[in-house]
Predict the 3D structure of the following.
Amino acid sequence: MYSDKTIVNLITSLLVAKGVRRAVVCPGSRNIPLVNDFMECPDIACTAVTDERSAAFYALGMSLATRKPVVVCVTSGSALLNTAPAVAEAYYRHVPLIVVSADRQKEWIDRNDGQTIRQDGALANVVREQTSVSEITADDSLGIDLSTLLLNMTLNAAVSGAKGPVHVNVHLKEPLSGFNADTLPEARNILTTASDLTQAGVGTLAEQAIRRFISSEMGMIVIGQMREADSELDAIVRELQKYYVVVAEPLATAAARPFDNALSECTDDLKRLPVNFLLSMGGTLVSKNLRNLLRSLTVGDHWEVNEDGRPHDMFGCQTGVVWCGAKAFLRALLDLTLENGRKLTPADNALRDKWYGMMERAEETVGESGQDYPLKTEEFSEKEAVRLFELSLEDMEYDFHVHYANSMEVRLGCMYAEHFIWCNRGVNGIEGSVSTAAGFSLATDDMVFCVTGDLSFFYDQNSLWNSSLKGNLRVLLLNNGGGAIFSKLKGLDVEADEFNAISGRHNANARGICEQNDIGYLQARSLREYRIALVRLLTEQTKRPMVLETIF
């Protein structure tokens, strides 16, 4: 039976109408009517997660895996605030995460009532839209109409246009456990009518930018993080690389070519190259070398391509913005390039010849080539662990997805991965990496790997505190006893005690965490042990997740 609260049933009905098929639900009393409806509804599959911060990242991972909106439902009070890190990540990556929070009735806010805070607008800075609704009766037609409008406006912001997280705050009165409705109401689903710029042709402004770029002899394309893996985009990028300088990381496309180490060797030479047309699209870039280079170059025109029409001016030289999906734009660029009869010669794009020539010479200097997994050493190190992991992964015959945690791990991934990389790069925080991968693993039958450092893992250890997790989740934990990347900070000269505080030094390992959560545990302290354990991590079939911890 569904709730006896009309507003709760209206919300559930509209969520289904908007395409919600999964919900992550958290413990509590105030959200009992919502949790009951979601679990009762045959169209919504529910996953229970106790830790709200982890739960929101679970929902993020599910949305990434399914490419559909996913709900995270929490009770009143600080429970809502715990979702903020995942919501911020979803905001900057345009992921349709829907936060539904239960709340006390408005008249008891700020009156010292228990578990009561100002929830309306609590996530205002990191959601695309928000609304607050209260209880209504079944015969209150005006109240139903207003609530329907507010909910449609908010939910549409999650699933249309640039997409992104939204927040629905629901004020509920006691009693909370009345369930006497046989069916959900037929809620009025107000559809958006804006054209989907990611699906079809480009407009006049986009075509103008494309034709100007094609006529440029010193043009460059930079692609930042994309929302999801896309084989069609990969194919388009591979073709465009034959004609232009296309700089991308594995967080954008599996067609990315390693460049960061080589870039550090020839930055001074590249700074002398005038770029008279720069096209950028996607989100953030991992490579600090690339960001600094592009901010120092003399750029004639810089046009950004995105789905919300807002300029971000990442490199301090932006002159235009094209409101269009990246794939649609690049497809149109490729089509017009071929129509213009471009030849596969270096003369077609002077910058392409110079750029790739410098990259090749620099790669020879640093010994880096993305094809043969260079920088091989016989030492047991984080770099060697990732290199061997990626090398071995390519031999696997199953479908897989790889999530990398932020900081050193994703940088190593960009050096060696020849596949799309999933990473919480929108905010670049260390929390939630394993939770995101865990949620992703529950929404797919493919193998899901998460490569993480120790601080990120221990901070997110509740990600493994879930009985729903399956054997398709595998974690490679690089434990070097703290934030080793801080030792790379230029100019940092502090006493040992201060550095230990800055880098979060510790002596912990993951064995106990894995044992208490029924997670398979492997440990490696040498290169020989790692090679043996890695085979098990990649091939052993289990009913529960597995963690391989490397201790350096």
